[in-house]
């Protein structure tokens, strides 16, 4: 854990010192659909980064024992996070050095909101590299490489900048 935090802190310090540039991007509204909620899992974490791309990603709500409430999950039931330095920006500010640990939730089609989520809050924000990153309530979404099974939330509160997302689309602290 200490190595992971050190590996994340150094790039974040470099990132904080560097100026952020904006690039052209576009937002794409999503279509309506419902999805069932997922149950938490007690599976042991690994460090393999899960795939986060789907032709049409679906966000859903799932009860999470670690957080103690329902949280937003991706199409595979994995916990999604927001990155505090992104704020409400449509451009990801995650340093390239840690994108493998914190991959964006992406969708090549129109993402949908499952039961309990607001479809009008689901968007796709096209990044400068062409990545179609899913956002909810104005927050770009990410998964965490150590979360390999539904119910995992190992990134919650990590470094004070990564937080799981509530049904309202806000960070849960």
What can you tell me about this protein's structure?
The longest helix is centred in the N-terminal third of the chain and has 16 residues, at 2-17. The chain has one domain (2-164). Strand 8 and strand 9 form a beta hairpin. 9% of the residues lie in helices and 23% in strands. The protein is built from one helix and eleven strands; from the N terminus they run H-E-E-E-E-E-E-E-E-E-E-E. The chain is mainly β. Mean pLDDT is 78; it is low at 1-54. The strands form four sheets. Strands 1-8-9-10 form a four-stranded antiparallel beta sheet, with no helix packed on it. Strands 4-3-7 form a three-stranded mixed beta sheet, with no helix packed on it. It has a two-stranded parallel ribbon with strand order 2-6. The chain is globular and about 35 Å long.
